[in-house]
Amino acid sequence: IFGGYHKTFGTKNALINLDNNRYLELIAADNDNLEVAAPRWMGVDQLHKNKITRWAVTSDSLEKDSSILKVHNSEMGKIQAGSRNAADGSLLQWQLCMPLPAPEVELVPFILDWSRTEKHPSELLPNMNCSLVKLYGTHPNPEKYTAILKELDCDFHIKKADTIQIKLLINCPNGMIEI
Asked: What is the rounded CA–CA span in Å between residue 123 and residue 59?
């Protein structure tokens, strides 16, 4: 379902409800928005094909999580507020540790705090009979991420592989789908 525009980031989105306050957000460059120059967030300007480039976790300790991210990468952890109008006209408001425009795929999550909004975005979506079965990453050196994922208290497994990817297994009306 079309979600809306991120006017200050130069992107637009569509959402798939994955139940349990989870959703898949499909983000694309908003080529009609000429006010935001590349590189835009989430790696959208680096993509050569559709893929999962980021993942997020919800936090009630954004300042603490921001400091953890900054130790991992000094450019991460910048807190910024955001908002957009949902399709039903309600206002969604959040704070987040901004995801960077690079690399193309980032295995470290960005952090969101939804406490400023009345409803989690997934609550505004209809039941789509989709659910998250598994979310994991692949990397040539997965141990590189062990410490930060543990410190962020993230249950995100990274398998050793030649490529850096975020993989998602969804149970949906078409069966089990891996993206």
From this structure: 18
Q: What's residue 66's pLDDT? A: 97
Q: How many Å apart are CA 92 and CA 86, to the nearest integer?
A: 7
In the predicted model, what is the mean pLDDT of residues 45-64?
A: 91
Mapped onto helix, strand or coil, the DSSP state of residue 95 is strand
Distance, in Å, from the CA atom of 45 to the CA atom of 131, rounded to the nearest integer, reads 29
Which tokens go with 95? 């704070």
Please state the pTM of the whole predicted model.
0.88
Written as six digits, the tokens of 30 are 């908003």
- The tokens for 128 are 């789509």
Do the strands 91-97 and 110-113 form a parallel or antiparallel pair, or are they unpaired? antiparallel
Task: Give the pLDDT score at 152.
Answer: 96
DSSP state letter for 127: P
